[in-house]
Amino acid sequence: MLAMLDLRHEAARYRLGVLDTESLVRIADALLKEGRNSTAAVQLLLLESPVVAEAAPIFERMYAECGITVPTKDEAIDDLLRFHLTSITSEARPPREALHVLMKEVYFPYISNEPTRKYFGDSRDLEQLIGAYWGYDDLQDRPREVSFEGRHGAEAIALYDEHVRELARDWLQRHGRAE
Known about the structure:
The protein is mainly alpha-helical and 179 residues long. The protein is built from eight helices and no strands.
């Protein structure tokens, strides 16, 4: 269950289609358990076999009742980028894991379709982080051939984790949300 509901984060995930109907209902339930008063949340919980098309308008009304605006698609992309990169810098998640989720939820479905100037992801200033995502594969799959800062294997990956944290810190600083 969600400990303390981060409604803004969930709104971004909702806007990008990451949440399924079960997740919408779970958020409504958690919201009520936190003591928030929302008739739309109750309505969402009372739906029988809800589908997204039926639940989405109620979910958005629930957010409005809580005074939270569901972000635009572009705002949601930026919010999720910041969330995932902050999870790297705060060490809430291992860098490779956080980059994997960022790529799955944000890069592949949305950013990869944006025009590039020179490098993949440069439309959002992510080119170094995208390169780092693929770099993990080389370090893990070919530990004797591929090194980072003269190190191989687990030692190289540990150093690379720190490098990725620094890349994430730099991105957050350039985009107004440094740790």
